[in-house]
Amino acid sequence: MTGMIFSGFGGQGILTTGMIAAEAGMKLGMHVTWYPSYGSQMRGGTANCSVKLDTKDIASPYVKEIDILCAMNAASVDKFQGHMRPGALLLVDAGAVPESHPMREDVQVVRVPVAEIANECENPKGANLVMLGAIAAHTDLFEVETLAKLVDEFFAKKGKTNPKNKLCLLAGAKCE
């Protein structure tokens, strides 16, 4: 079982990122849970979602030990890093979480300049998709091309097609 938490401020596409990851898991034939949590004020308040992927039935959507944490701000690192398994993957927004911010030494930390990359792709709202691409690059959960196709399908269902969304995801997948 893989337990993921996506966390940041409302309006950053946190819940969308988790939903796309969950849909990717379903397309791979996995059992999936997606559990959102957000404050009463959507934009600017805190938002996070839990995603679980497994080949077997999942008893609870609650992620007790985090395998992958995507933190789009320092508050998210502080809130969730204590629940990470040793050796887990912590992806942080390099523009929002200072290098000096205290982070666990027993997890793999990847700093992703999501806003910078999204701006280079001329899609500032695509920072969450940059982070999703970084997940594909640093795990064996998803193929980058599969995620890119799912991103296009996800937004097409909402009538919000934007080829720059896919560019953000692909650029994020190149992050080391």
Unreliable spans = none
Give the SSE order as H and E letters.
Answer: EHEEEHEEHHHH
CATH class: Alpha Beta
Globular, elongated, flat, extended or rod-shaped: what is the shape? globular
Q: What is the CATH topology?
A: Pyruvate-ferredoxin Oxidoreductase, domain 3
How big is the Rg? 15 Å
Give the strand order of the largest sheet, numbering strands 1, 2, ... along the chain: 2-3-1-4-5-6
How would you describe this protein?
A 6-stranded mixed sheet has the order 2-3-1-4-5-6, sandwiched between helices. It has one domain (2-172): 3-Layer(aba) Sandwich (Pyruvate-ferredoxin Oxidoreductase, domain 3), CATH 3.40.920.10. The chain has 176 residues and is α/β, with parallel strands linked by helices. Helix 5 packs antiparallel against helix 6 (163-172). The protein is built from 6 helices and 6 strands, in the order βαβββαββαααα. The chain is globular, with a radius of gyration of 15 Å.
